[in-house]
Design goal:
- The chain is an alpha/beta fold.
- It folds into 3 domains: 112 residues, no CATH class; 199 residues, Rossmann fold (3-Layer(aba) Sandwich); 53 residues, no CATH class.
- Helix content is 39%, strand content 17%.
- The strands form 4 sheets. The chain has a 6-stranded mixed β-sheet, sandwiched between helices. Strands 1-3-2 form a 3-stranded antiparallel β-sheet.
- Helix 9 links the parallel strand 7 and strand 8.
- Helix 2 crosses helix 7, helix 7 crosses helix 9 and helix 11 runs parallel beside helix 12.
- The chain is flat and about 95 Å long.
Length: 416
Amino acid sequence: MKRIRYSKYVPDPAGDMSMEDLLSALSDYFLQSGFNDNFWYELPDGEKTLDELRRALEQALLNGEMFDEEMRERLQQMQMDGELEEVIEKLIERMQQEDYISIDEPFEAQAPDRSKQSSVGGQVGEAQQAKFEITDKSLDFLGFKALRDLLGSLGKSSFGRHDTRDMATGIEASGASKSYEFGDTLNLDITATLSSAIQREGLGLPLNLEYSDLQVHQCEYQSSCATVLMLDCSHSMILYGEDRFTPAKKVAMALSQLIRTQYPGDSLSLVLFHDSAEEVPLSQLARVKVGPYYTNTREGLRMAQRILQRQRKDMKQIVMITDGKPSALTLEDGRIYKNAFGLDPLVVSETLEEVSKCKRAGVLINTFMLASDYGLVQFVQKVTQMCRGKAYFTTPYTLGQYLLMDYMSRKTKTIH
């Protein structure tokens, strides 16, 4: 008689692991802003070394919460037996094959040969210097994860577009009918149109319709908004024992994901400001790190205004995330004037002049402060008084909740 012997299923950590769970465990490593680096500058194009990825994977496997206690004990035993390195190499290969990371050379050429040690400190040779970077697929997932986590903490799951008290013609009818005017969406209210014709001509066939008989449904006018996110990336964002830049990047990614999925008529641009300022594509957000030391708020505002001038939206706003008072200024000849001690009268006056230009252009400025020093609070108070914006004192842990709720609270704004 033929017998079948069953054995206990032993999961394969490399083959059975969810890539989404692995990316979640590695999100802090992928988005790090230089807080844990020996040097504050970044590698070209945001690249990281494969050896750093191997160490991050090892920490995630041994110390993360992806596995139960039994699996963690098995992984620890594999580490003692020298088998964990093979699991890590398989995970890296899977991440490359499934387009979560890209490596500058074929994976087979990058796998380290542990039997070959270099003559310097017993380290692996050229293979350690192999670089990789995360792909757009990974960035989309990390943005979705950040948005899901932030909305989950708010008790929200989904949001619509920005509602206003104005009425417009459209497909979704939510108001009374109105006479058709040129340019309206031709979403006819058949009952009201026929009633108008009957009142004019009486019951009879054929029933002649005239232009004045046409009635269309109204829907709530939903405004569009152009937003420039000004993100302070001066060196203070990773100083004083706290990483403020990585949480700010996560919030920016979540805001980008929210706009793309829930508010498709809105636009979002990113401006980094430090000694100077530059516009950065949102696709590169996760790869940027902190920059030079000072805070050139005025240059960031000037660049934000140039971006908003190109946008034809009902609302225009600047969202500024910063942890320091203005301490730098770009002079007319291109030189950068710097003074980090107190509130420099020249820097403050020129920056407030730029705020005044925003007010005249109808641009709202909302400021999220990640610090509470006297100089910053005093400056932000003047900005909010001039632009009638809002100021929030937040921490890296509450920044996302404040920012997303502020963005989505403009549902009752009247458009003139």
